[in-house]
């Protein structure tokens, strides 16, 4: 899963260096590279300026005071830890059932994800708007073979970049052929929910704010810690949707058992970059989202370092 902003990240079995492109990856951050605005050049005028012999100087009123602007990192800290999204309540059930398509062909994979994203739109749109943000649906692209992503060059199985959720059909087709069919379905539901979680981060300013925080950190360890916070939150948001819609999906019985096993065995311990969180914490945050159905349960930015290791 992958989302990416100015840094890359990774996701579990699919974890790859993000996260606007988001982890378990458009990084967890938004796709594209964020650049500081360049300083405009000023060309001196060729004309000789004229001055009034008795210039008038206006003196500010003693009662007028200028409040200095808050440093960007202060605003960013508040955006990620006190976001309005955490105060709007539970996500409403989309009342969507699990898509009936199975990963037996590229067309079936495309149909599954297209239907799933429409359901995610239905559930998240009212919550984003209630929090005071503008909602717009992400685009979805299904890739085959070495087909490049339209928004970023990351090669993991799923990613979010520049408002586009990219999913590689090859990954799902292989899982369907070689692995447990129920595990394949649970993994597909998790992946698309995770990348959509990065989209929610973008819509609510969390993604940009996290990038600002990353730009103000010193050292790789601090940057990876920030990456894990945004990636684990995306996994928590994935759980939120399934938890909200569990009765209709339905996320129960054998399906839920397989989903729980899958999120509990998706970690980045094997990856020296440690950008997505270990399997224990990944399971904890995914299950927190599912159990609550509420984005308030996903405030990874206010959590202890140990809980996002």
TrEMBL record:
It is a single-pass membrane protein. Its main location: membrane. PROSITE patterns: PROKAR_LIPOPROTEIN. It comes from the Bacteria. Pfam families: Zn_peptidase. InterPro entries: Uncharacterised_pept_Zn_put (IPR007343). Keywords: Membrane, Transmembrane, Transmembrane helix. The keyword Transmembrane applies. One of its GO terms (cellular component) is membrane. Residues 36-71 have a biased composition (Low complexity). Residues 33-71 are annotated as: Disordered. It is found in: Membrane. This is Metalloprotease. It comes from Kribbella antibiotica.
């Amino acid at each position: 899963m992958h989302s990416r902003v100015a840094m890359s990240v990774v996701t579990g079995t699919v974890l790859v260096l993000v996260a606007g492109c988001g982890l378990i990856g458009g990084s967890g951050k938004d796709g594209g590279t964020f650049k500081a605005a360049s300083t405009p050049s000023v060309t001196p005028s060729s004309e000789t300026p004229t001055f009034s012999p008795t210039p008038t100087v206006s003196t500010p009123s003693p009662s007028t005071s200028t409040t200095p602007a808050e440093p960007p990192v202060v605003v960013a800290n508040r955006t990620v830890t006190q976001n309005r999204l955490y105060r709007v309540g539970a996500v409403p059930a989309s009342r969507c059932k699990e898509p009936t398509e199975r990963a037996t062909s590229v067309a079936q994979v495309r149909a599954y994800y297209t239907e799933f994203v429409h359901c995610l739109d239905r559930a998240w749109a009212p919550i984003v708007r209630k929090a005071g943000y503008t909602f717009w649906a992400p685009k979805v692209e299904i890739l085959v073979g070495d087909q490049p992503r339209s928004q970023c060059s990351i090669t993991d199985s799923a990613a979010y970049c520049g408002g586009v959720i990219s999913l590689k059909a090859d990954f799902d087709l292989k899982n369907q052929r070689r692995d447990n069919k129920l595990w394949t379905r649970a993994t597909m539901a998790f992946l698309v929910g995770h990348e959509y979680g990065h989209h929610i981060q973008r819509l609510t300013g969390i993604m940009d704010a996290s990038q600002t925080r990353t730009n103000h950190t010193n050292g790789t360890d601090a940057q990876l810690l920030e990456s894990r916070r945004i990636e684990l939150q995306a996994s928590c948001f994935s759980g939120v949707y399934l938890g909200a819609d569990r009765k209709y999906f339905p996320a129960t019985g054998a399906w839920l058992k397989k989903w729980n096993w899958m999120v509990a065995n998706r970690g980045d311990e094997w990856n020296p970059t440690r950008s997505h969180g270990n399997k224990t914490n990944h399971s904890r945050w995914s299950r927190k989202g599912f159990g609550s159905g509420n984005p308030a349960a996903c405030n990874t930015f206010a959590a202890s370092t140990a809980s996002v290791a």
